[in-house]
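Per reviewer request, we include the raw input and output of the structure prediction for the construct analysed in the revised manuscript.
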Amino acid sequence: MADLAVKSATAMADEPAGAGHNWPRNDGLDLDLSWVLDQRVNLSAAERRVVTLPGRRTVKKDAQAAWLLKAVTCIDLTTLNGDDTTERVRRLCAKARQPVRQDILDALGMGDRGITTGAVCVYHRFVSTAAEALEGSGIPVAAVSTGFPAGLVPHEVKLREIEASVADGAREIDIVITREHVLTGNWQALYDEMRDFRAACGDAHVKAILATGDLKTLRNVARASLVCMMAGADFIKTSTGKEGVNATLLVTLVMLRMIRAFEERTGIKVGYKPAGGISAAKDVLNYQLLMKEELGREWLEPDLFRIGASSLLADIERQLEHHVSGAYSALNRHPIG
């Protein structure tokens, strides 16, 4: 079984995680309201597109193992709970360094590939703890800032929180937009807010969380995605994971189409991060397939694709163990934190 995953899926898992930031930053551009207001979504066509995806595209056996290993390298391993502790964060960081058991990697011929998760995502309170635990690994710390998850604290407080997270060692900042700006069509306010966030991040990459479950319509999702990219977002992200509806393939399709339109017009590549509700290996495969079909192979790397998740990693590891052993193990044999 040695090297089967690499050979069967064109080196899907070849790239190390943590290198992460190899594309030029998105410096943004002036707000183009005519481009924003021109966005429409054909709901029935979009629904047909995502409903037919699982039946048209599947990966099995060795290829599936390779795709799942690639997914591991794109996970922002996350803990955003009210009962988080420093010890939990340290355990999470240890899992990020070794996300798949060594015996499983050895059986796949991947034992020497240095596979890690794409990042570790925590509240500001735990940024310095995570940065210390991950020192030397190349795995970046992502901090949720700007009054996560509601984003309803004063603007100046949001900016200070970003700056504090960067000072503590965060290399990525996941910000939350003010949903009111989208719901009232105040695109200038959303643009200005995002520009301030981008500036406060300095050298840290910024992921704009749209909280798509709160935006009511796919047209709002499309327009908010475009405005955030114009304002300099390096990634656009679906959700905080705290909304009633989080990442879906339908919302993903709309956001990927906006990323493609932005790249076609500007030449700037912007990343994508679905978050919330992605807990099964079979689900993440659908997101990967949609990414590849809509944006191409480059968007399957952690530079441009991240998955906000916690329990997903345990299910992926469980599926990989089944692939090499032929038997499923209990989930409690694959702890994450």
